[in-house]
């Protein structure tokens, strides 16, 4: 069981907007920033969003992140087929003194 | 562009020690703004942080694995290594090495990852 909770799946049609939630606790999301990764089959996770809402260079502005309290969310607007993949949230956990991850959300573009 | 590459045996026998090395290229491992870490991924448990090491040698381990894990660093070779002892089938996973940025106080995120190394524990 992952420390951070994400829905196992999400889907949308091309052009739609989808959001992926990530729920944690006071020791992780509640007191630290959240980061989001995309993982394509057979590849390593790739950082998309760091520090709650900062896009890595090259990430389109139709991808955004936000955080409120002990939850965070990733929003993808203008959905494209290339957005298909697994998305993971992550945050530092003060009780662990290390990183914890969400279980991942598989995004399907219908 | 920083590049990380894992290397080591892909098959380890139960009760033996898993050993992996990560070679960093395109930059120096002596970097005060980051840590060097190991993360593993299984279909069942997802992504799990194993531990980190600072260029000075300071280490930080996941308490769930601490009794079996050793992470070391060789700054002369720009390499850091993972040893996981007394492995069982539950340690079968893809193991990633990664750089954890800490440029900003209190903000930590893994920005560069190796391609991953599949390690299977089986006799």
Task: Kindly list the characteristics that best describe this protein.
heterodimer, A: 110 residues, mainly beta, 7-stranded mixed β-sheet, 3-stranded antiparallel β-sheet, B: 123 residues, 4-stranded antiparallel β-sheet, 11 strands, 54% strand
Descriptive report:
The complex is a heterodimer of chains A (110) and B (123). Chain A has strands spanning 9-12, 18-23, 34-39, 46-50, 54-55, 63-68, 71-76, 85-93, 98-101, 105-109. With 110 residues, chain A is mainly β. In chain A, strands 1, 3, 4, 5, 8, 9 and 10 form a seven-stranded mixed sheet that branches. Chain A has a three-stranded antiparallel sheet with strand order 2-7-6, with no helix packed on it. In chain A, a hairpin with a 6-residue loop joins strand 3 and strand 4 (46-50). The termini of chain A are far apart. The mean pLDDT of chain A is 97. Chain B is 0% helix and 54% strand. In chain B, the strands form two sheets. In chain B, strands 2, 4, 5, 6, 9, 10 and 11 form a seven-stranded mixed sheet that branches. Chain B has a four-stranded antiparallel sheet with strand order 1-3-8-7, with no helix packed on it. Chain B is an all-beta fold. Chain B contains no helices and eleven strands.
């Amino acid at each position: 069981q992952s420390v951070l909770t994400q829905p196992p799946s999400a889907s949308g049609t091309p052009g739609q907007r989808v959001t992926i939630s990530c729920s944690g606790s006071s020791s992780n999301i509640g007191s630290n920033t959240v980061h989001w990764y995309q993982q394509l089959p057979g590849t390593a996770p790739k950082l998309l969003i760091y520090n709650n809402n900062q896009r890595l260079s090259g990430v389109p502005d139709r991808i955004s992140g936000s955080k409120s309290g002990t939850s965070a969310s990733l929003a993808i607007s203008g959905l494209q087929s290339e957005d298909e993949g697994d998305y993971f949230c992550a945050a530092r956990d003060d009780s662990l003194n290390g990183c914890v991850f969400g279980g991942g959300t598989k995004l399907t573009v219908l | 562009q920083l590049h990380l590459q894992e290397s080591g045996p892909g098959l380890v026998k139960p009760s033996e020690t898993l050993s992996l090395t990560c070679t960093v290229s395109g930059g120096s491992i002596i970097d005060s703004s980051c840590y060097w870490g190991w993360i593993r991924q299984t279909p069942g448990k997802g992504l799990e942080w194993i531990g980190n090491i600072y260029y000075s040698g300071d280490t930080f381990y996941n308490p769930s694995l601490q009794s079996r894990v050793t992470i070391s660093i060789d700054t002369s070779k720009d390499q850091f290594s993972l040893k996981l002892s007394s492995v069982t089938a539950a340690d079968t996973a893809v193991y990633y090495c990664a750089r954890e940025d800490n440029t900003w106080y209190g903000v930590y995120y893994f920005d560069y990852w190796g391609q991953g190394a599949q390690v299977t524990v089986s006799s």
